[in-house]
């Protein structure tokens, strides 16, 4: 399903593990260089700065070409504009497949730009060719496109877009079911976030998903964030007041407001505790970041201090929490320390790279001489010439 050469992707994974092993001084520079030479990657993937430049250049070129065609062949009709957008979307996707096949582009900036532009032009075309599609229909369209590009190109952001679009489908579909569904909406989104997080955690290390591991990690982070946002008091109150017409006045609380306040204040702390307990850097860092959300939410409804002081207090709390965790993990507790990244594969990295290195530096011994000549040698001739 994925568009790239599987051998090159596998070699890329080996090279990444070699770099990680080199970073942790498990192998030498010479061994890492030998691994890269033995497992070459036939893909064009420049550094981040060139990638950003190529992304912007590709966007400008395609948009300029689209604008030129608009000036030449269109007369202001939405239908014609929609058809041109559809053709541009399909043409961009076709060019993307061609460039990946012929030029071996892989996260080069060019392919990233073409993925996003293809989706953007397709959504634009649908909105122009069909009369006012609903948010639910548009969410379904975006989910289908993002899921396809995720499976086809393994784009990390496409994984996040597909997850957000799926939540939008659930949200826009459930609110049509009446007031009961609206009331249960936060809990429904919580349940979906927990389920997605559990599924990603369970299967992201599966060898069949090795090309999508970075995508799974990004979705895992998003699931943790949406789990918190779905129960955050500020998000629930303001969204309900805006979309569900609760018409709450200043100082009025939402139904079961006490639950959402507890959720807002405790969930980041639960993340931090579980991150330390399970030696999971992702959930730990997410919890540390969400400490700021606690401060913001409390400050928004309870004007304890000016915003500058509140932000300073929030930053100080985050620093103290981070310092406390660092001191707790010095020395390491149960194999988990602040000094090293939490990589589930790190434990077996040495063994994996040792095997690779062994294969890389393996030399084939010369074949033994199977022909034994009895002749005029001082030993082989057995003294035939008198020189024994």
UniProtKB/TrEMBL annotation:
It comes from the Bacteria. The chain crosses the membrane at residues 52-74, 80-101, 113-129, 156-175, 181-200, 212-236, 256-273, 282-301, 307-325. Keywords: Membrane, Transmembrane, Transmembrane helix. This is DUF2157 domain-containing protein.
């Amino acid at each position: 399903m994925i568009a790239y050469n599987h051998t090159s992707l596998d070699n890329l994974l080996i090279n990444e593990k070699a770099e990680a092993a080199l970073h942790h001084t498990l192998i030498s520079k010479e061994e890492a260089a030998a691994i890269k030479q033995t497992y070459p990657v036939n893909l064009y993937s420049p550094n981040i700065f060139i990638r950003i430049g190529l992304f912007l250049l590709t966007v400008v070129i395609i948009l300029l070409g689209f604008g030129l065609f608009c000036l030449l062949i269109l007369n202001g009709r939405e239908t014609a504009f929609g058809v041109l957008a559809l053709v541009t979307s399909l043409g961009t996707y076709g060019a993307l497949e061609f460039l990946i096949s012929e030029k071996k582009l892989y996260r080069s900036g060019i392919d990233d730009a073409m993925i996003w532009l293809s989706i953007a032009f397709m959504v634009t075309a649908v909105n122009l060719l069909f009369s006012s599609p609903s948010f639910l229909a548009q969410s379904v369209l975006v989910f289908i496109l993002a899921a396809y590009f995720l499976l086809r190109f393994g784009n990390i952001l496409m994984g996040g877009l597909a997850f957000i679009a799926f939540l939008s489908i659930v949200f826009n579909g459930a609110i049509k079911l009446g007031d009961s569904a609206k009331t249960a909406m936060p809990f429904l989104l919580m349940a979906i976030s927990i389920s997605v997080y559990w599924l990603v955690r369970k299967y992201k290390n599966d060898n069949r998903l090795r090309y999508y591991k970075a995508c799974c990690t990004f979705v895992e982070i998003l699931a943790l964030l949406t789990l918190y946002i779905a129960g955050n008091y500020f998000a629930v109150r303001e969204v309900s007041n805006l979309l569900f017409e609760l018409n709450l006045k200043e100082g009025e609380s939402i139904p079961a407001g006490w639950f959402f306040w507890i959720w807002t204040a405790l969930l980041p702390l639960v993340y931090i505790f579980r991150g330390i307990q399970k030696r999971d850097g992702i959930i730990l860092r997410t919890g540390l970041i969400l400490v700021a959300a606690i401060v913001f939410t409390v400050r928004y409804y309870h004007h304890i201090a000016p915003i500058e002081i509140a932000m300073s207090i929030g930053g100080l709390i985050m620093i103290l929490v981070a310092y406390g965790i660092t001191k707790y993990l010095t020395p390491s507790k149960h194999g988990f320390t602040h000094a090293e990244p939490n990589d589930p594969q790190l434990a077996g990295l040495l063994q994996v790279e040792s095997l690779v290195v062994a294969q890389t530096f393996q030399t084939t011994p010369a074949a033994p001489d199977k022909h034994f000549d009895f002749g005029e040698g001082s030993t082989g001739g057995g003294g035939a010439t008198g020189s024994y």
